[in-house]
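ok here's Peptide hydrolase, seq below lol
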Amino acid sequence: MSSIPTLLHLLFTTILLLAIPTLAYQPLSDTQLKAVPGPIESDFDIKTGALLAPILIPRVPGTPGQAKVQKHFVDFFTRELPEWEISWQNSTATTPLSGNKQIPFQNLIFRREPPWTKERGPGRAALLTLVAHYDSKISPEGFIGATDSAAPCAVLMHVARTVEGYLKKVYEQGVAEGLGKEGREDPGREMGVQILLLDGEEAFKEWTDTDSLYGARSLSYEWENTPYPALSRFKNPLRQIDLFVLLDLLGSADPGVPSYFQTTHWAYKNMATVESRMRALGLLESKPKNPFLPEAGKLNEHFGRVYVGDDHQPFMAKGAPVLHMIPTPFPHVWHKIEDDGEHLDLPTVRDWARIVTAFTVEYLEAAGGEVGAGAGTGKEGKGEDTAAKQGTTTDGEEKAGAGVGKGP
Ligand SMILES: [Zn+2]
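and the structure came out like this:
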């Protein structure tokens, strides 16, 4: 494993060397897409995979299996991503099965933000927020929930490790430019990533407003009610969510994820474009009948009010923009004992890892590119990498780029 960071480092160095400043949102170039590191096959082995295998056990809230999986996540970030801040958000609740007994629900938050925003206190960085639930359903007995949501959790671990290679460079450059010092502000580059592994998504007895989403309800409530100091850029942690990308029920072959929300269709289209470009470039290994994301061309009038109840709901109700990555129809193994490692389609799992990673890198590139500061991005190089590295950008470029690429 020790060779991996070095490899990532080299690959991202390649991306950065190819970079020139841009004025506006730019998709990753073909060269950049190809350079985004894909998953190591062995990470997703269902018996021995360093990322996936330890999650493929029953992990019901408050049980030893769940504690093991929590340790797996924390150990991974502690060992491989020491720059990421780890925090827990705990709550307890009774469930329809627990009588008077309080069951613990423990959300895990892994956050990486620019050093200059961190130094200046909380509430400055906008955060691309990638989410999956890690609890498993209490029944049927022995249920492992491979698609629900062990595989999405493993995918997010891969994403974190891969984007770190990119963020490290971008943040080092920001520090070198003196961002955050002596009033040097650049809100367009105050962008970080957080990964939420949520607890208690599953109902214990039957899905109702109170028997489901235990972790998400508690976290969204706490975040909305924890104000930042008066001069912070964001009012509270909930407002820091730039986009809430929820992965759920992923890992079966031939998924079809619709675009659920008109307000975030711009993000869906970006993800769908990443998929179709990667497929055209031969960077994906699955051979689905249809694209994973088939609705890039969905018309405004075709967005209805129908959506799937899931962890995004309490966040969305409080104003967070949501991209819900859940297939319709659900995998045929859904909530059955067959939702186990053997029923995963691993090429599909690894392709999700590739697509979400590339989307994340592109999203962060867009944040850097908006201010044209050469933190990364855009088209293939024309020998202007020196200018990019030195950040030779004018104010005019900064204004021209602001706000592009976010929003419909
Ligand atoms: Zn479920």
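fwiw The pocket of zinc ion is lined by residues 137, 148, 202, 335 (CB under 6 Å). kinda neat tbh
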